[in-house]
């Protein structure tokens, strides 16, 4: 982070299409953009070219403090109990509309900052994000409690699902807009206010979303966006004494730190969506071509930078060679290159650091005796400075190898074999993680048994990576706890109050063992 | 394509189609018949609309069934259905004035109320159910590890819906919103007294992009088109709002044909209880609102008022004053609260009840006569000293007529309040809210208001106990009216018993 006292409040970027994109650069609090209190700033490069892209404000604890004050005030006056579900729903719907109206611009911005193909940002990420806002807008007036049988004529007991309050939300760089939507939509629909920290690798699209939120009619202080580093802004959020809940998506190692800070400070509620090392299990009865296609998607989509990427392929020995051959063919077939090209499927990784990390993992695979069966694909001419990593398959992998045990977060697939169903289940579960898994088999009973036996929050049966705003998503084991999406997703942003209302019971005094 | 060009007293203009709306097209009735819709404020004909016969219902059902199997139902994900309902809500909101004008002309209710309440609530109801469209979820149910069991919430299919004339727009929304959200298609018959506003809604339905055949609307008469719907062998469910008398017929017709599912929202004779510790002025205002709103043409009208003895005289004075002060006259005047009753027939019926009340020895405190002018006006009427078994005390009048009694003993009062074949709504007024809650729990009614009246919300269920109906509309509860639950048992390891 660098102190820059005269950081321009707006910046203009030019996308490969020629489109000019204008962005505010400041810290967003109370519907206003301003420089960080201590004038910190960060730069973000264009991962396709390696060149400088933009400099934006980076906050510190002071900015988080100011954001929380604004969020608390809004919660107590214009949002929370003082807003109606209809109001919250209307604002979310308006925001969805505005995002939709600006979808091309946002997609190009996302691609510039993250490296993902423009078409993927637009047709997958942002379309889903808009739908996510709409999904939760439709839930805002459906957060219900219960009335519970008590003694007739004396007492009425009921529950209310109340908003939690000020929620700190820390999001990752792999799906900046989509992770932003997944976080804010249920929180806001339920009446909470938010202080959200985008990833330092991808600070840009959140600023544009924040700008649109003003037009959508959210009162000041309801949404606050503080860019900056995890070690300052992130830590300030997780240890803040007036933030009621922290939601984090990112690495398991950071998740543990956040939970520790939350516990040590005010015991704020915590939900974590962390890493994964998800198994894709292919049985011999599977449609192998389909399994190969889905398994390729599972590890190559978003350049493998997906918490639920299918990074461990477990294939029944009888069909190993056939499947691996298909996978190798697939890994040659898609276009790797310029994300602004509609034909591109694989862009660069998000940063130099990530590229070096993944290359390090690949080297460890080679060093530890795994067999690389893919050839090194050449980066298109002119993009040699981009953070590309060639899609890689390792066979003859064993637990104990770094590439098998640890989350790589890149386009690197490890392959193991199994003999029978029991071994497949054992190997699939042999990980500290439990985020996703895939099962490929044409035997429905087998699918049933295996999907039930695998310890993962999402299990795909004869497909992969397909998510839906209506279906909950989250981890088991060290992949985290809490669920996003679906109706479960909004429950994470409410707390239950039980009310026991006496309307007929008289209490006499004194009380003793006989009278009571 | 026949239309009516309407010019409203407030200067507004509108063109309304008058043919049947089937497959997003306007088609005349097969036998070419039409009937008149009357402006109840003037007693004059507004124009002719198509009169549906059983054959037209057949055509509509065919269109609906085809749409269900190709372009709605499970062919369109809930999320998409929700989007279309949101679009419809948006269009409604952009056209509130026009809708209100048409409603007021055809129904007689005050145009200001038609806009601020009826038409606005249509948009709210559509939005509410749009939000449910992708959230009608089944369950997975743990039995044991030998099988995998789950439920699916599926649409029912082709739903016949028959709506009344008291809140034409609102009843239209209450019916189509949950049905469409859950993936059903509809054949809806409007009331013969008020066919116009629904036809305007049909234009918006097509404009919103809702596929042809999903919503089909016919104007016509109960004994012909309504009966045809209730008896149709390819309608899977019928939903009816109207009188208990007709509701019985609908249920019989459904039973005698294909046992289609039936939900009914029928009449009421709702008791409004005023305890002595009520805020008297406020309670009297609510009581007046409870019976006089919509000229008493509410199924849940608070048509029986019971006042605790100690405050009876004082209360009745305020009630009288408030009822007398309600501005009545031309619904297109901004200040009007009371317009005419819907029709000659209704006016006659109400007057017959009033006469029978007088004959039974009840005292007319105010009103008791027709209003002046060409429209079907009836003066707001308060009866006291009423025989609890008389017709005016027991039967639904559906007009601006309230019977008031005093009570002393609470237990006795509760018995009397519950002593009705109906059970649609009730109200309790007391400053002691805890006590009011206790009383509310003892009233046999589907909606009980505490310290208010006629307050409904799309999120909260509404429907009757006893002969006031079957099933609930509004809230999440309405979804079950339009859902078929399928249980799926997938055997994993159970060997065949043989």
From TrEMBL, chain A:
It comes from the Eukaryota. This is Aldehyde dehydrogenase.
UniProtKB/TrEMBL annotation, chain B:
The lineage of its organism: Eukaryota, Fungi, Dikarya, Basidiomycota, Ustilaginomycotina. This is Iad1-indole-3-acetaldehyde dehydrogenase.
């Amino acid at each position: 982070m660098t102190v820059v006292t005269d950081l321009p409040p707006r910046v203009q970027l030019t996308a490969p299409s020629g489109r000019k994109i204008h962005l505010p650069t400041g810290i967003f609090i109370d519907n206003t953009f301003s420089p960080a209190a201590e004038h910190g700033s960060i730069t973000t490069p264009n991962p396709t070219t390696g060149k400088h892209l933009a400099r934006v404000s980076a906050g510190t604890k002071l900015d988080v403090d100011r954001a929380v004050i604004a969020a608390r005030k809004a919660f107590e006056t214009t949002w929370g109990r003082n807003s109606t579900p209809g109001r919250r729903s209307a604002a979310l719907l308006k925001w969805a509309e505005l995002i939709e109206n600006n979808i091309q611009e946002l997609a190009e911005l996302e691609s510039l900052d993250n490296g993902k193909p423009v078409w993927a940002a637009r047709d997958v990420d942002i379309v889903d994000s808009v739908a996510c806002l709409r999904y939760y807008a439709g839930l805002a007036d459906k957060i219900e409690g219960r009335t519970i049988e008590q003694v007739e004529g004396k007492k009425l007991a009921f529950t209310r699902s109340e908003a939690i309050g000020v929620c700190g939300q820390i999001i990752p760089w792999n799906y900046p807009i989509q992770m932003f939507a997944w976080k804010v939509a249920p929180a806001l629909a339920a009446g909470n206010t938010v202080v959200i920290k985008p990833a330092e690798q991808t600070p840009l699209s959140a600023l544009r979303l924040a700008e649109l939120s003003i037009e959508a009619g959210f009162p000041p202080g309801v949404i606050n966006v503080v860019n900056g580093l995890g070690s300052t802004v992130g830590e300030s959020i997780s240890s803040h004494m007036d933030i009621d809940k922290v939601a984090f998506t990112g690495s398991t190692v950071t998740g543990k730190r956040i939970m520790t800070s939350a516990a040590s400070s005010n015991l704020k509620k915590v939900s974590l969506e962390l890493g994964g090392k998800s198994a894709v299990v292919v049985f011999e009865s599977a449609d192998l071509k389909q399994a190969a296609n889905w398994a390729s998607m599972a590890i190559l989509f978003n350049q493998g930078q997906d918490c639920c990427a299918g990074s461990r392929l477990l294939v029944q020995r009888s069909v190993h060679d056939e499947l691996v051959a298909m996978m190798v063919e697939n890994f040659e077939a898609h276009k790797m290159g310029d994300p602004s090209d509609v034909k591109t499927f694989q862009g660069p990784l998000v940063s130099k650091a990530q590229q070096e990390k993944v290359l390090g993992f690949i080297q460890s695979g080679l060093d530890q005796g795994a067999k690389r069966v893919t050839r090194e694909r050449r980066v298109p001419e002119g993009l040699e400075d981009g953070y590309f990593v060639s899609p890689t398959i390792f066979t003859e992998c064993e637990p104990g190898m770094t590439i098998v045990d640890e989350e790589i977060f890149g386009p690197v697939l490890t392959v193991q074999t199994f003999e029978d169903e029991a071994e497949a289940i054992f190997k699939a579960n042999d990980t500290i993680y439990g985020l996703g898994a895939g099962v490929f088999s044409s035997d429905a009973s087998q699918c049933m048994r295996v999907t039930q036996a695998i310890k993962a929050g999402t299990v795909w049966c004869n497909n992969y990576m397909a998510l839906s705003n209506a279906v909950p998503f989250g981890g088991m084991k060290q992949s985290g706890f809490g669920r996003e999406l679906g109706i479960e997703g909004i429950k994470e942003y409410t707390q239950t109050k039980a009310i026991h209302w006496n309307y007929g019971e008289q209490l006499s005094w004194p009380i003793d063992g006989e009278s009571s | 394509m026949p239309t009516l060009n309407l010019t409203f007293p407030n200067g507004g203009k509108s063109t309304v189609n008058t043919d049947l709306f089937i497959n997003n097209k306007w088609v005349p009735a097969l036998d070419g018949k039409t009937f008149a819709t009357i402006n109840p404020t003037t007693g004059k004909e507004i124009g002719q609309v198509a009169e549906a016969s059983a054959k037209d219902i057949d055509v509509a059902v065919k269109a609906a069934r085809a749409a269900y199997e190709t372009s709605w139902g499970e062919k369109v994900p809930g999320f998409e259905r929700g989007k279309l309902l949101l679009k419809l809500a948006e269009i409604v909101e952009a056209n509130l004035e026009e809708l209100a004008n048409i409603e007021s002309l055809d129904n007689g209710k005050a145009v200001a109320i038609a806009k601020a309440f009826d038409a606005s609530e249509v948009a709210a109801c559509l939005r509410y159910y749009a939000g449910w469209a992708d959230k009608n979820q089944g369950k997975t149910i743990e039995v044991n590890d030998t099988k995998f069991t789950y439920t699916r919430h599926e649409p029912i299919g082709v739903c016949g819906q028959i709506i009344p004339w008291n809140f034409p727009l609102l009843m239209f929304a209450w019916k189509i919103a949950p049905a469409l959200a859950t993936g059903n298609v509809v054949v809806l018959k409007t009331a013969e007294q008020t066919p116009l506003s629904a036809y305007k809604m049909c234009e918006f339905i097509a404009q919103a992009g809702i596929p042809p055949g999903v919503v089909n609307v016919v104007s016509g008469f109960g004994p012909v088109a309504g009966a045809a719907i209730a008896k149709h062998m390819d309608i899977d469910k019928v939903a009816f709002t109207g009188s208990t008398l007709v509701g019985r017929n609908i249920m019989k017709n459904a039973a005698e044909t294909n046992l289609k599912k039936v939900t009914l929202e029928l009449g009421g004779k709702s008791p409004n209880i005023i305890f002595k510790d009520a805020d008297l002025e406020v309670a009297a205002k609510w009581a007046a609102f409870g019976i006089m709103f919509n000229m008493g043409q509410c199924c849940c009208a608070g048509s029986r008022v019971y006042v605790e003895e100690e405050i009876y005289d004082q209360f009745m004075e305020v009630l009288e004053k408030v009822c007398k002060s309600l501005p009545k006259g031309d619904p297109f005047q901004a200040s009007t609260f009371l317009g005419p009753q819907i029709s000659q027939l209704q006016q006659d019926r109400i007057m017959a009840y009033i006469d029978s009340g007088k004959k039974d020895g009840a005292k007319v405190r105010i009103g008791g006569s027709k209003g002046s002018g060409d429209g079907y006006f009836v003066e707001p009427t308060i009866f006291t000293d009423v025989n609890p078994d008389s017709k005016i005390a027991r039967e639904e009048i559906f007009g601006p007529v309230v019977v008031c009694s005093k009570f002393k003993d609470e237990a006795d009062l509760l018995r009397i309040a519950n002593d009705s074949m109906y059970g649609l709504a009730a109200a309790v007024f007391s400053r002691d809210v805890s006590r009011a809650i206790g009383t509310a729990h003892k009233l046999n009614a589907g909606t009980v208001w505490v310290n208010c009246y006629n307050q409904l919300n799309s999120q909260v269920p509404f429907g009757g106990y006893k002969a006031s109906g079957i099933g609930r509309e509004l809230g999440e509860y309405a979804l079950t009216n339009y859902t078929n639950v399928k249980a799926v048992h997938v055997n994993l390891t159970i060997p065949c018993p043989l």
